[in-house]
Design goal:
This protein is of the alpha+beta class. Helices cover about 30% and strands about 35% of the residues.
Length: about 450
Amino acid sequence: MSKIETLANKLFSKLLTLKNWALAQLCALWKKYSPQLKQLDFAKVKTFTLKYKWRILAIIIALYALSKAYDYFFPATDKAGGPVTVTTIVVEKKDVPLIMEATGTIVSNSIVDIRPMVTNTVAKINIKDGQEVKAGDLLFTLDDRNDKANYEKLKALADDAQKQYLRAKELVEKNFISKAGLETSLANAKSAQAAARSAEVQLSFDYIRSPIDGRAGIVNVFPGSLVQASNVVTTATSSTATSSVGSMVTITQLNPINVQFVIPEKDIPTLLENQLDGEALKVKVTVGDASKKTYEGKVLVIDNQVDPSIAAVRVKAQIPNDAMTLLPGQFARVSLVASDLKDALAVPSQAVVINPRGKFVYTLDKDGKASSVPIKVVYEYQGSSVITGIQAGDKVVVEGKQNLRPGSKTREAKSTAAPVAVEAKPEASAPAAAAPTAAPSATPTATDKK
């Protein structure tokens, strides 16, 4: 790069020398031929101009282009003119929250499809569609007559076998029976008790209870419906046809509820860094209209592998749902506060100028003269940029920079004593992902921490 700059400087110096030589030659020619020009008549001048008009036009265009190029590469910093009106801020050090935005999906903390364990008919339905249930609440009662009779039979046999064992124990003490007979009596009692317990378990399958707290969905069976011990429940829906459904009912836990989204692979180190600190990462979730309620929660888990198809890792967070306004499957916008950038320098994003050579900002010295300072944007979020390359206390031009050149004099239109803060409140992500939101997200990009 240094060789190219050296070559360019030599070329510009030669152009400057050529310009000076051309001006000197033109002055000499003018002094030499100016007396003769006074003797030229208008007809001859007109004839000469019409004859060489295209050459004269090409020379004029070339001289104009050379003049503009010289002014561009060697701007006159001391040209006459008034100062440029600008608006500035004074940059100060502060802690800026590093926020990642994504789109995701609301998912249940626990969801259970209620299916029968035995083939039987529904005797009674103890819940209604959409009812809130607790763990252990009775949902369905199947026809239990056969199972109950079998249990009572085996229970009676188990009780009789236990009595026979106790009687045999007394007889052994009186030497009326052998110890082998006692052991046989004990084995019979244990076998009968095991059969009774098995029948009790079989009977319990006729009383289907809720395994979790939650809300019941639509009940897919009716009293008298035949249900089978499989993944399909068959229920009568009309007088001429039957339909098959996946479960008798689905119980969904709604409070608390989870949100699942994805974070790009490049941001995984930042996530894991903060997770290892011991404190759970915080999230803010909005669903639907972003102007409505924002739900705050914490990250539950970061998946242990990256999905190579999307180069992202899945993250699950938990949020409260006391009002039961969130349902699984809803699209959500997630803002994850990963960490804080300590002693960062933040400026409005509109203060950053981008050109082919890179990014820079205009700063003002104590006399109000502008100078360009190359910078690097570390993090950008909602119209504010965290940058490096400047110092705390520098005056950075925010508005009016389009009229500035290095060395330009300026005049303040409005001065702000402190930099614009980076808001931690999410803007309705995109998304991220969104959903996954995963997707993400439409989401600002966070680079390395300072």
